[in-house]
Amino acid sequence: MNIKEENKKVYISDLEDFSLQQTLECGQCFNFEKINDEKDEYVVIAMNRLLHISQENDNIIFHNITTEDINLWVKYFDLDRDYGVIKKTLVENAPELKKAIEDKWGVRILNQEFNETLMSFIISQNKQIPHIKQIVRMLSENYGRHIGSINGKDYYSFPDVLALSNIGIEGYQKCKTGFRAKYLADASEKLKSGLNAQSFENLEYEEALSLLKEIKGVGDKVANCVLLFSLGYRSAFPVDVWIKRAMEDVYFKKETPNTEIMEFAKERFGIYGGYAQQYLFYHIRGDGK
Length: 289
Known about the structure:
Blueprint: E1 2-6, E2 9-13, H1 20-25, E3 32-36, E4 40-46, E5 49-56, E6 59-63, H2 67-76, H3 83-93, H4 98-103, H5 114-123, H6 129-143, E7 146-150, E8 153-156, H7 161-165, H8 168-174, H9 181-192, H10 205-212, H11 220-230, H12 241-252, H13 258-269, H14 273-285
Antiparallel strand pairs: 1-2, 2-6, 3-4, 4-5, 5-6, 7-8
Helix pairs in contact: 5-9, 5-11, 8-9, 10-11, 12-14
């Protein structure tokens, strides 16, 4: 991976196993927008920052930033991890994943901010991705802060903990969250009371899972998404209707309880469970929204 700065842009080249489009569009994040239909060019809102990013072949272009800022985004996109080793190990131990991995070769697991990931996946329950993105954008525009403009369009950060706690059930309902409003309000209060990423430091997986499930409306699927996408538990294996379908088709050949699927994944994929989940999820879901 080579990094150079030129004309207010930072270029990363010689980077393998990374597709910007696959990483953003695979269902693990919702606060982004594709701004060019003819190439992979996006606006990403993360960590209270606004990023204009594009990819041309193996070159990643970060617009309007300097090399002083690049480490933050290298970590966010997980660019300093060797995914070649991960994919090789998965295929050796679970050769049935080979097709999914080859199909979605460029997916990386983002290191997202805890508060936004928690709230976004509570919103995600029984929702399709375009609607989730719409609600996240609505919350940001109504309760976040203006963080900049790209191509004449204004963008807003995801609300901070204080702003979230002031929204209330009615405010969440006005943002089209439906029955999830009471869950979001409860999560907001727990965040205000001190629940944060540091609360999970040194916790074993089962302990972290239990702590998240103390929030109203957070079950195994949402909790595992939060663990995987924001807290570094890369063995976490969220099971939704897509993963359930894939696992039953590949392994069980029959209707199987989610708990049994998660236990099987733990034994089969081990520390790489989260990566296996992402390759399977995006592969079976395809590019559908």
